Amino acid sequence: MKCSGRNVSTGEPIEIQFDSVIGHVDPLLASDEGTWIAPGFVDLQVNGFAGVDYNSPVAPHEEIARSIRVMFSTGVTRFFPTVITGAPDQMLGALRNLAAARESFPDAAAMEAFHVEGPHISPDDGPRGAHPARWVRRPSIEEFRRWQDAARGHVRLVTLSPEWPEATRYIEHLSSEGVVTSIGHTRATSQQIRDAVSAGATLSTHLGNGGHATLPKFPNYIWDQLAQDRLAASFIVDGIHLDDAFLKTALRAKGIERSILVTDAVMPAMCQPGIYKLGEVEVELNADGRVQLRGGTRLAGSSLRMDRAIGNVMRIAGLSLTEAVTMATVNPARVGRISSRQRGLTPGERGDIVRFRVEDGLVQVVETFMSGRRVLPESS
Question: pTM (2 decimals)?
Answer without folding.
Answer: 0.97
